[in-house]
Sequence to fold (464 residues):
Amino acid sequence: MAGIDRRFSAPKGVSDTLPAEAAITLGATKYFAEVASLYGYSPIETPVLERTEVFERSVGVTSDIVSKQMYTFEDKSGDSLTLRPEGTAGVVRAFVEHEIYKSEPLPWRVFYIADMFRYERPQAGRYRQFKQVGVEAIGAGAPEVDVEQIDMCLSFLGGIGVAQPKLLINSIGDPTCRPEYLKALVEYLDSSEIRSGLCADCRSRANRNPLRVLDCKRPECKKLTEEAPKALDYLCEACRAHFEEVIAGLEALGIDYRIEPRLVRGLDYYTRTAFEVVSGGLEAAQDAVAGGGRYDGLVELFGGPPMPAVGFAVGLARSLAASKSKGKAESDRQGHGRSRHRLGPPRFEPAPRRPDVFVIEIDAGARDQALRLASSMRALGVSVVVSPGDRSVKSSMKHADRSGASVVALLGPDEVAKGEVTVRALRRSAESGPQQLSIRIEDAPRAISEILLEDSAVEEEPEG
Ligand code: HAM
Fold:
């Protein structure tokens, strides 16, 4: 066989998510949707493509994302478009464009599950295309909403089993108090012994976007900015009160937190609360599994009325990599996952990958019966794979075995002549009933459903 032609491999930094992994990702996104719904958030979808200006204006032209990482191109009519590097800007653009503030009660609470694109240096946990799950609450000024979102974020991360999640929180002030803080920070960074020791990137950031110097991961820059002025010491009365109420809310819910004065976030739209969740299960350089905060000026920047807002996003691949339940999720994948109507809080489960029933056409003469049987079982919510009559029964049985199906339904010339189907209950123990039986074809969907229910009852029995 010829080798793989590398010309056709996926581009650098983007990759395929094959079924085993995709089942876990799909389970996690479904779980996120359930958690977000519990907090009263509704789904939203915005385009993958936006006008480049949407990100330049919001994320900021001096941010790394806009200045270095965007996939920007001119379309055939000469408009500059960009693949979204993050979700907040598009949601706020949609909020203003559809004048939601005139028609919907505020805060407008929405959640999204969406792919983002950043031209970054690929490494473990850092990709050029990655999935985020996130929320935005627009028109929400109260500190309770910051707390509600942090609680939701941690509840989701806890539910998927992220190892040692740690909440880091800061306030970076607002247009009232930030100018004075920035003045003090620039003065500090301007002192000759500091400036000369900073990396080249930070020396240029010190003028363009001084806050970002505090976010540099290089050890020499970290050390030099240890004593830099802290935004928390410059907060105005209103920002201070907001921050204190957020902290009081976290304490009321018993949420552990660490005030991190260097936390500034990489996007320019933030005001007041900024937070990240890091996981002890990941390498320090890519340990942020979620990030968010307030962006009280962004709606106005897009031409809407002045209006506060807050949101966060979780990086899905990173948080699943940090998930200690990943191993468990892998093994659950083999499980049945059939009990759909369970009461109680949502649970993270990988999407089922195993069919319930494998229908084997022994020869093509049984085709119509096989198609009808499969279709009537699917109408009952039973998942069915049909193995067509152009292959040997032996190879179909092997396939059925590998698929993990609970039941095999065989249809051949004998069965067709008698109007029957031969059913094999692969998981049934000899004491529970016959493992192979002939059933009238019209009775088969109900009889097979009963076998499946019996199987899932056995699987759900507590061990021990
Ligand atoms: P962000 O901190 O840029 O915030 O991204 C949120 C999360 O996405 C990060 O904590 C990380 O887990 C994941 N992430 C970011 N870049 C990559 C990458 N290259 N590869 C894999 N995962 C990545 C935002 O995007 C804001 N829009 C969050 C927000 C919503 N703020 C307010 N509302």
The pocket of histidyl-adenosine monophosphate is lined by residues 86-88, 118, 120, 126-127, 130, 132, 134, 136, 266-267, 288-293, 311-313, 315, 317-318 (CB under 6 Å). The chain has 18 helices and 16 strands.
